[in-house]
């Protein structure tokens, strides 16, 4: 994986702007610690930071190859991602007469574009964000993978276009102010830590939507979807469906285990991570590649403070041991204490460029930092719950009938923490309702579906297009901040397309969440793990963490210069701080973000406003 950035300008000679593009590129150093490169022409400048995974000795970027049928014009590529079908594409291109100089997928992607243009996207299996400059036409082409695993932001203004893997690279441009307007604040306070697809939060920033490409030249800019979920009748019965799911998942895992650097899996002892690890172990045994290394995360004394509830019914530790013993992996257990978790809140903001999932982000950042000491690539179970229907809100009538996002039901609580002036400006209830209506209007319903199937398809769509991107963004930004590449097999578009059209009664086979996934893994996992009740990514239950974030937040509110004060209802926050204890449950966002995470999110907001010197344009 890597970091990419670029600058198109019709009114400047960018060959004189080397220092600027180098500064933009250097902001992405953590994403690509192994090498750096820039490419400049009169109206285009590209920057790239490389994390070497395939063919480390070659594949430097920006990569330049001749345009099709031309001896004098080139195509120039900067690319962040992995192509899992690169060997097949390489053979096809070689049969067409192309000769390769490297063994990396970067060259495969560039020559695929040279040969097929935008239609190459239909052939790609992978996770990617890339930009190509066509020197003859003076045209920029950018694209992002189907599920949006890899990020790509941009800012367009008169005569100029800027892009980057992260907002920080665009903010490093000398003419770009660090500003946020009312809509950006609405994203942070009303939608956040989720985000509306395509929204860049920062003023005049956008994110290229998943499954979209963008073209920009002197005539302007246009974006187009090259992939979207499509509804169709499902033909197989339960047994046939389970067999197909297992076949697709096994093929996906094997493709994603290819690497020229050390690779590992993340293992929680839950269904998703255990399945991926078991398939990896089976593949390693079959191909003689030795032992699989696994990693898990927990918190000091969490066993003493853990309290089971619907969202987190049991702790992971016994299940991790069950699986590592069963699979004979080389296991690495990582633990953090409250002070480390608290201190990493700021590092998580710097990685994300906005406030995020508070300690849920911070713990992942610390976890990835430890993994990076042993491996460069990790396999993770993200997205299975959204795709197969694993979250509790798929199975609760009140959530299914709620006319809002099921992970954000406490809109009254969210509104109550805003200052009256900001509440009037943002109109949080209306903003949320508009974003929800926009999402629901996109759902590709199947003609003739009854109300139950329509409702479940809508819930699946909301999760895949609105909730899953939050977790994918979290995983990318926290892992890449330490130079770790994380692959997510459940996001293979072939698997997503297939599971999308499985009827709910088959998807929930056996009346269990992710029932068809469980059935597909019979014989792969032991039964007790196979039918373990879902438990999400672990968070700290130590009351010291609540004390730490609450105390620091109150200290910040006592400072008259605190930039949060004009934005929040201070009395309401103080009341919450006084009444929230270790047993309180404030369902602020999703499964994991409650009272302590609300306080931590506000602390992240305060740090972000100060560190980035954010100017409010209201």
Automatic annotation (TrEMBL):
Gene3D superfamilies: Glutamine Phosphoribosylpyrophosphate, subunit 1, domain 1, HUPs. PROSITE patterns: GATASE_TYPE_2. Residues 2-219 form the Glutamine amidotransferase type-2 domain. Pathway: Amino-acid biosynthesis; L-asparagine biosynthesis; L-asparagine from L-aspartate (L-Gln route): step 1/1. L-glutamine binds at residue 105. Pfam families: Asn_synthase, GATase_7. The active site is at 2 (for gatase activity). InterPro entries: Asn_synth_AEB, Asn_synthase, ASN_synthetase/amidase, AsnB_N, GATase_2_dom, Ntn_hydrolases_N, Rossmann-like_a/b/a_fold. One of its GO terms (molecular function) is ATP binding. One of its GO terms (biological process) is asparagine biosynthetic process. It catalyses: L-aspartate + L-glutamine + ATP + H2O = L-asparagine + L-glutamate + AMP + diphosphate + H(+). GO terms for cellular component: cytosol. Keywords: Amino-acid biosynthesis, Asparagine biosynthesis, ATP-binding, Glutamine amidotransferase, Ligase, Nucleotide-binding. ATP binds at residues 266, 297, 380-381. Transmembrane segments: none annotated. The record marks 382 as: Important for beta-aspartyl-AMP intermediate formation. NCBIfam families: asn_synth_AEB (TIGR01536). Belongs to the asparagine synthetase family. This is asparagine synthase (glutamine-hydrolyzing). It comes from Cohnella endophytica.
């Amino acid at each position: 994986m890597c970091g990419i950035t670029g600058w198109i300008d019709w009114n400047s000679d960018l060959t004189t702007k080397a220092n600027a593009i180098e500064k933009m590129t250097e902001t992405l150093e953590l994403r690509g610690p192994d090498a750096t490169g820039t490419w400049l022409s009169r109206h285009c400048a590209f920057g790239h930071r490389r994390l070497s995974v395939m063919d480390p000795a070659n594949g430097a970027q920006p990569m330049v190859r001749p345009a099709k049928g031309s001896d004098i014009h080139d195509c120039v590529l900067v690319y962040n991602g992995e192509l899992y079908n690169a060997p097949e594409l390489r053979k096809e291109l070689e049969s067409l007469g192309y000769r390769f100089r490297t063994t990396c997928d970067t060259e495969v992607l560039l020559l695929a574009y040279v040969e097929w243009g935008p239609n190459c996207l239909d052939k790609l299996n992978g996770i990617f964000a890339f930009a190509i400059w066509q020197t003859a036409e003076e045209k920029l082409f950018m694209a992002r993978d189907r599920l949006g695993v890899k990020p790509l932001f941009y800012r367009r203004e008169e005569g100029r276009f800027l892009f980057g893997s992260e907002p920080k690279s665009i903010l490093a441009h000398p003419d770009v102010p660090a500003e946020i307007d009312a809509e950006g604040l609405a994203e942070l306070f009303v939608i956040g830590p989720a985000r509306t697809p395509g929204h860049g939060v920062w003023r005049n920033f956008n994110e290229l939507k998943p499954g979209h490409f963008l073209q920009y030249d002197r005539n302007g800019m246009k974006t187009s979807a090259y992939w979207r979920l499509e509804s169709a009748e499902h033909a197989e019965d339960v047994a046939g469906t389970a067999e197909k799911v297992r076949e697709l998942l096994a093929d996906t895992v094997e493709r994603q285990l290819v690497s020229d650097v050390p690779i590992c899996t993340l293992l929680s002892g839950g269904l998703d991570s255990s399945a991926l690890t078991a398939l990896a172990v089976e593949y390693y045994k079959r191909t003689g590649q030795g032992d699989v290394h696994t990693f898990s995360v927990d918190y000091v004394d969490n066993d003493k403070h853990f309290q089971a509830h619907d969202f987190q019914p049991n702790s992971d530790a016994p299940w991790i041991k069950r699986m590592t013993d069963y699979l004979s992996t080389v296991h690495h257990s990582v633990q953090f204490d409250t002070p480390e978790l608290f201190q990493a809140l700021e590092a998580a903001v710097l990685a994300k460029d906005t406030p995020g999932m508070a300690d849920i982000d911070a713990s992942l950042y610390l976890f990835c930092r430890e993994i990076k000491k042993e491996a460069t690539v990790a396999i993770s179970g993200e997205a299975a719950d959204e795709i197969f229907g694993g979250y509790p809100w798929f199975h609760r009538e009140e959530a299914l009938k709620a006319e809002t996002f099921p992970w954000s039901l406490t809109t009254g609580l969210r509104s109550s923490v805003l200052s009256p002036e900001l509440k009037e400006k943002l109109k949080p209830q209306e903003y949320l309702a508009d974003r929800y209506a926009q999402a629901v209007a996109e759902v590709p319903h199947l003609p003739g579906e009854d109300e139950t199937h329509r409702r479940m398809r809508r819930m699946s769509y909301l999760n895949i297009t609105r909730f899953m991107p939050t977790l994918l963004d979290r995983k990318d930004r926290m892992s890449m901040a330490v130079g770790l590449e994380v692959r997510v097999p459940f996001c293979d578009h072939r698997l997503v397309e297939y599971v999308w059209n499985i009827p709910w009664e088959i998807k929930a086979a056996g009346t269990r969440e992710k029932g068809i996934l469980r059935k597909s893994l019979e014989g792969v996992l032991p039964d007790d793990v196979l039918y373990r009740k879902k438990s999400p990514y672990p968070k700290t239950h130590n009351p010291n963490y609540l004390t730490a974030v609450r105390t620091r937040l109150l200290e910040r509110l006592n400072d008259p210069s605190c930039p949060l004060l004009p934005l929040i209802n201070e009395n309401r926050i103080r009341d919450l701080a006084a009444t929230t204890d270790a047993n309180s449950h404030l369902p602020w966002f999703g499964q994991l973000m409650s009272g302590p995470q609300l306080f931590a999110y506000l602390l992240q907001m305060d740090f972000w406003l100060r560190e980035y010197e954010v100017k409010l344009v209201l």
